[in-house]
Amino acid sequence: MPSNLLALLDTPRIRRASCYFLFLRRVAQYGFMTAEDKKDIVNNGLDIRTPSGTDDPLSDAEIQQYREEINRMDRIILDAAKRRTEVSQAIGRTRMSSGGTRLVHTREIAILNQFRDELGEEGPTIASALLRMGRGRLG
After folding, report:
1. Which residues make Cβ contacts (< 8 Å) with residue 128, sequence separation at least 6?
2. What is the mean pLDDT of residues 112-126?
């Protein structure tokens, strides 16, 4: 590869993007970071972030702030989904141990409708995933 092309590729933005995509490939390969991966992480003071799609430093900073907020919200959503699953499974166990049914169809329809009303056409897909996590697959 010509040295002038290598110089173009050796920029902070390209290095950040390269690290990001190598990391994604590793996560995709294993589905998560292994303990071995975590022990190999060294805090060298470099700020490795996902590419923002802009060369403007002010826009980049704003995008990174939004991404940090999204990451915080994702953590809240994930924790809530896990807790919802636990509570739903406890309800199912209680209902079945007292002779009830595995699920209450009218309750599930109400949840699907609520998610559709609040989130639009993707709402029922999200609700279905949450319901399945709580009660398991049907059939």
Report:
1. 112
2. 97
In this structure, are residues 77 and 126 in contact, taking their beta carbons and an 8 Å threshold?
Answer: no
Two tokens at 93? 């166990």
- Tell which wins on pLDDT, 26 or 56: 56
Contact at 8 Å (CB) between 134 and 89?
yes
Query: What are the helix and strand counts (H, E) for the chain?
Result: 6, 0
Confidence grade of residue 38 (pLDDT, cut at 50, 70, 90) = low
Nearest to 106 by CA among 131, 136, 80: 131
Q: Buried b / exposed e across 94-109, counting CB within 10 Å, b at 16+?
A: eeeeeeeeebeeeebe
Both ends of the chain: CA-CA distance in Å?
57
User: Is residue 48 scored above 90 in pLDDT?
Assistant: no
Q: Rounded to whole angstroms, how far apart are CA atoms 109 and 130?
A: 13
Long-range contacts of 1-9 (CB under 8 A, 24+ apart): none
